[in-house]
Amino acid sequence: MIKVQVPGTSANLGPGFDAFGLALSIYNTFSFEEKNDGKLTIRGVERKYQSDTNLVYRSMQKVFKKVGYRPRGLYIHTAVDIPISRGLGSSATCIVGGLFGANALIGSPLKADELFDIAVELEGHPDNVAPAIFGGLVVSMNDHGKNTYIKSLVHPCYEFYALVPDFPLSTSDARQVLPKKISFADATHNLPRATMTYLALTNGSADILKLCMKDRLHQPYRKKLIAHYDVITKKAREMGCLNTCISGAGPTILAINSVDNPSFQQDMVGYLAEKAPGWQIIPLAPDHTGVQILGG
Ligand code: HSE
């Protein structure tokens, strides 16, 4: 039995659309076993996901195909902690879990970088799968099929909170509301802000992080799909939180707080309970390790 733990991720981080991703301390865990029964058995998920269209299984097949291996039968168990369709990278965990699990089952013939390329092909963009694999704060890009990334550690002056609503939002719906073209002004608005966001998160410039996360490429369009977005983000700032952004394609809001503002969590719990009762708050830390094979 092989067990694979994959962290959830928060992509974009405001101005870093389709480029930045942060691995967080919330995990999906996948267990794999090759069986002699010639069957595919999937457990731990709703019945509708227990077939050969399952994303974990389809990802495993990519590895088996690449190395020319035919498993006799497969048992897959999924233990889910990451909220589904909430912008916390749950589908990326299925892809990464399936790829790394299949690879480990057959003696690890493929390297992490090769699995990264397959993961990007399956997910369509690298910003969730890169931190899910490598951990930390990652900037990644796909250049004509070649994927490249740089990983950095997040400065310990920050803590993170996922503010998660009770409604899902599919990434394709959230991409559909984006414009086909953007203005030169919007592009140049984002460039310095994205660079500063990445640097401030790594070097601890909390005062800069307060100013630099405003985005013009996706958040103005997507926030309309997220009920309570404006009031919750405004309230978070009033509670002394450094900044907020849409986590991935949403609808979760990621709040970045200073460790010197310890009242934030309690204040936000009280506010959500009263004003937006469908929302929950999950305290999170950066995960600097990424996917882990835990063994049997
Ligand atoms: N960068 C992607 C997006 C992340 O914002 O659409 C979603 O998976």
Automatic annotation (TrEMBL):
Pathway: Amino-acid biosynthesis; L-threonine biosynthesis; L-threonine from L-aspartate: step 4/5. PROSITE patterns: GHMP_KINASES_ATP. It catalyses: L-homoserine + ATP = O-phospho-L-homoserine + ADP + H(+). ATP binds at residues 83-93. NCBIfam families: thrB (TIGR00191). Catalyzes the ATP-dependent phosphorylation of L-homoserine to L-homoserine phosphate. This is Homoserine kinase.
